[in-house]
Design goal:
This protein has 8 helices and 45 strands. The protein is mainly beta. The radius of gyration is 27 Å and the shape is globular.
Length: 805
């Protein structure tokens, strides 16, 4: 263990023993409202939160299924680590509730994120959404890192905290954090929930939830399955899910929850099978370009120097002859993922003012598949050197998050102090196809290992119209040794990478001036280490990559002021985060990490006795300190320009500025309206930059304008009582296809608006309440390309039936 962190770790060891002792005071009476059952959202209790009384409440630290007002969640665990009301938190917080997930049939976390302004997703990369323009692995499951298979089985809510909020979490990107909460067992109740769905393209989905509990023990089991085809020829997807949760009130002041789950997703002809090749309208099917036989980049460079290479996707033909990505796969392939997480959560109230909480987690993940690898198409509609690539990624992750929370009042200031230590150890195992070691003849350049995923022999010339669909599995299975691409026809080595994300933090959340001013201040010590090794291959191990290390303090400050103690609050927050880099400098040490810092300034409103809530804010984020090889300094020092341990400069900043707003209006108990908008004023590379041509270019496929509207009305009385009408739309303006590259700087996908509509009806049969629903997605049947150029789904119908007994 890092010596810097031993005192805090030792402190936790002692206090973990203290939690086994009886509390010094009698337990507070149980609040009946804290056990109210609802299928709407996972939040904490709707009390005043940790600063609303002189003592800490155990339920403020436990995620429980409690009633929410339709689409509105009142509290957030993710933002502050304790159940604080969203309106009292100096941060931009959005929560997608379970009712909204159900009404919109959002079967993936990516689907639910459509209702969060400032977030864009890519179907081909579910684990790395864009939050405020920055892409990365943001997603947590019940506060613990989760990489893949992000379905909404057993999901109760999705919380998004935007900005570089790195205090409570070790691996956070500049845009923010996404945390989805799972359903929890309910004490004292026995019930079963059933949900079934059917729709176009053989869509079938079913989920069963079973809850049984008394006042001390509660268990919940959830079983789900999904199967669907698609408008894409050959595509099919199968999801299976199983989880079992056991909660135990050990004493009135201690509670533990053990959860084990298994989740699998298997896709035949997944999204990567449908190509989205790029070209230039000056080049495509131009007789002169065809005669040259040159690639688009070579031909554009010779004929239009200084002009971006790409400005359009290779045109597609609607119908059965559309070889460029809408319906017809270019290569049969598969993608399969299997996750098996186990969580143990424990909370103990040691005294009225001191609470210990912990999360221990283990997860095993296996993600594998076959993808096509394509060059840019030639002007005559053909591709050269097309090959299949098989990948296998296996991850074992171990997480341990420990926290002490202490409440103390100094003068008239209520303070909630938190001290925490968390660690994530992720071992990634990649079977590789390694080429023979070529020893370096220059002492300044280390001998390196050249290894890749398993690549097939290439198809020299392929035309998607005349050649037909390629067989990816067959290409991999019939590969002969010593191919031109990978060097070997089978996996011959195993690459293991251990990444340790750790840190200690201390935070104070203070309330003063008669609960009109809310402050948060804290700092986190980030500790990252990476080690790579090659089991059973001593020849590769001798030339492995040097270890990487990154350490840094990342502060966070925030304030929220309720103007005249009224319904309008002003807030400001500043925070930092780091992203480790794994290169080594002239001294052999790891280069400095990428730095990110940002701030939000805005207002929150809570009007009409809480029926209307909203947030509007202006945000700014700067990411910089990217390591840039300094070839000139290397050469001046007598080193080659590709020296392994060379000189680096730092810079290449990316800057994001924007306006964001969200509104949740429960006009009545029967009518709900949500609205969100994000306007990116700037999301670009800025000076100084090692490549002047990218200054001012977009940082990624981020729309300048993005907004959504969704509303729901339920007839409260009369002959149509129980009828539910709902609908809304998501709009995205044009967005860059890719970022950070001059050759894509004039290439944008068109903007689009997708409309969904829903009709439901609640009724009783056989003594049970049922809800039937018809949802139409993409009502206008618009043809559009989503982020990354992938075609969106056409109009689809889904019929749902749900009950609880």
């Amino acid at each position: 263990m890092n010596a810097t962190r031993r005192p805090i770790a030792a402190l936790f060891s002692l206090l973990a023993l203290a939690t086994m002792l009886p509390a010094q005071t009698a337990p507070a009476p149980v609040d009946a409202s804290s056990t109210t059952v609802s299928s709407t959202t996972t939040t904490t209790t709707t009390s005043a939160g940790p600063n609303g009384s002189d003592v800490l409440k155990l339920e403020d630290f436990i995620v429980t299924s409690t009633a929410a007002t339709g689409y509105r969640a009142t509290n957030s665990m993710t933002a502050t680590g304790v159940g604080t009301p969203i309106g009292d938190t100096p941060a931009t917080i959005d929560v997608v509730t379970q009712q909204l997930i159900a009404d919109t049939r959002s079967d993936l976390i990516n689907d639910a994120l459509r209702f969060v302004p400032g977030v864009t997703t890519q179907p081909t990369n579910e684990s790395q959404p864009f939050v405020r323009g920055f892409q990365g692995t943001y997603t947590l499951r019940d506060g613990v890192f989760r990489r893949q298979n992000l379905t909404t089985f057993d999901v109760d809510s999705v919380e998004v905290i935007q900005g570089s909020n790195s205090i409570f979490y070790s691996n956070i990107r500049p845009g923010g954090v996404i945390n989805y909460n799972t359903m929890q067992p309910v004490f004292g109740q026995n019930f079963v929930t059933l949900d079934g769905d059917a729709g176009d393209y053989n869509f079938r989905r079913g989920e069963v939830g079973i809850n049984a509990g008394n006042d001390q023990l509660a268990v919940r089991a959830d079983l789900g399955t999904l199967y669907t085809n698609s408008f894409r020829n050959g595509f099919s997807e199968n999801q299976n899910f199983l989880s079992v949760d056991l909660s135990w009130k050990i004493t009135p002041n201690q509670q533990a929850t053990l959860e084990a789950a298994s989740e699998s997703v298997h896709r035949v002809d997944g999204w990567t099978a449908y190509a989205t090749p790029m070209t230039n309208s000056r080049y495509w099917e131009n007789p002169a370009a065809i005669a040259s036989g040159q690639s688009v980049s070579t031909w554009m460079g010779a004929n239009y120097p200084g002009t971006p290479v790409y400005n359009e996707f290779a045109p597609f033909l609607q119908g059965t002859r559309d070889p460029y990505g809408r319906e017809t796969p270019i290569m049969s392939n598969y993608q399969a993922g299997l996750d098996k997480p186990v969580d143990l959560r424990y909370v103990a109230k040691i005294t009225d003012n001191l609470v210990f909480s912990s999360i221990l987690n283990y997860a095993w993940e296996d993600n594998e598949g076959i993808n096509p690898v394509l060059s840019d198409p030639l002007a005559n509609d053909t591709f050269t050197n097309v090959y299949a690539q098989r990948f296998i990624n296996v991850r074992d992750s171990y997480n341990a998050n420990l926290r002490l929370t202490y409440k103390v009042t100094v003068a008239t200031v209520d303070n909630t102090l938190m001290v925490g230590d968390d660690n994530s150890w992720i071992i990634q195992r990649y079977p590789q196809s390694a080429q023979p070691i070529v020893l370096s003849t220059n002492p300044a350049v280390l001998t390196s290992v050249n290894a890749t995923n398993l690549n097939s022999a290439p198809v020299a010339i392929w035309n998607p119209v005349t050649s037909g669909e390629l067989n990816g599995q067959g290409m991999i299975g019939t590969t002969t040794p010593a191919t031109a691409v990978s060097g070997f026809g089978s996996f011959n080595s195993l690459k293991d990478t251990l990444q340790h994300f750790g840190g200690d933090y201390i935070v104070d959340q203070a309330v003063l001036f008669n609960r009109t001013l809310f402050l948060i201040a804290g700092d986190r010590y980030v500790d990252f280490r990476q080690h790579i090794w090659w089991p059973y291959r001593g020849d590769l191990e001798a030339h492995t990559t040097p270890d990487a290390v990154a350490t840094k303090w990342t502060p966070e400050l925030g304030a929220l002021y309720k103007v005249a103690n009224g319904p309008v609050s002003l807030f400001y927050t500043y925070s930092e985060s780091v992203i480790p880099q794994t290169q080594a400098d002239i001294s052999g040490k790891s280069v400095q990490p990428i730095d990110a810092k940002g701030w939000d300034a805005g207002a929150k409103v809570e009007l009409l006795d809480g029926a209307l809530t909203g947030t509007v804010d202006y945000y700014y984020t700067l990411e910089t300190n990217t390591a840039i090889a300094n070839a000139a300094a290397d050469l001046a020092a007598g080193l080659p320009s590709n020296a392994t341990f060379g000189y680096y400069t730092y810079g290449n900043p990316q800057e994001v500025r924007g306006l964001q707003a969200s509104v949740n209006y429960n006009i009545s108990k029967d009518y709900q309206l949500i609205f969100g908008v994000n306007e990116n004023i700037e999301a670009a590379y800025v000076a100084p930059n090692s490549n002047a041509s990218v200054i001012g270019t977009p940082i990624g496929p981020v729309p300048a304008t993005q907004y959504f509207v969704w509303n729901r009305y339920e007839v409260p009385s009369g002959p149509l009582k129980g009828l539910v009408l709902g609908g809304g739309w998501n709009h995205s303006s044009e967005m860059a296809v890719a970022g950070g590259n001059f050759n894509y700087s004039q290439f944008y996908t068109e903007g689009f608006t997708v409309i969904d509509a829903m009709v439901g009806y609640g009724f009783k049969a056989a003594g049970h309440a049922f809800k039937a629903q018809i949802l139409v997605k993409n009502l206008s049947d618009e043809i559009y390309r989503d982020s990354g150029g992938v075609f969106g789904d056409p109009r689809t119908w889904i019929l749902s039936l749900a009950t609880r007994f």
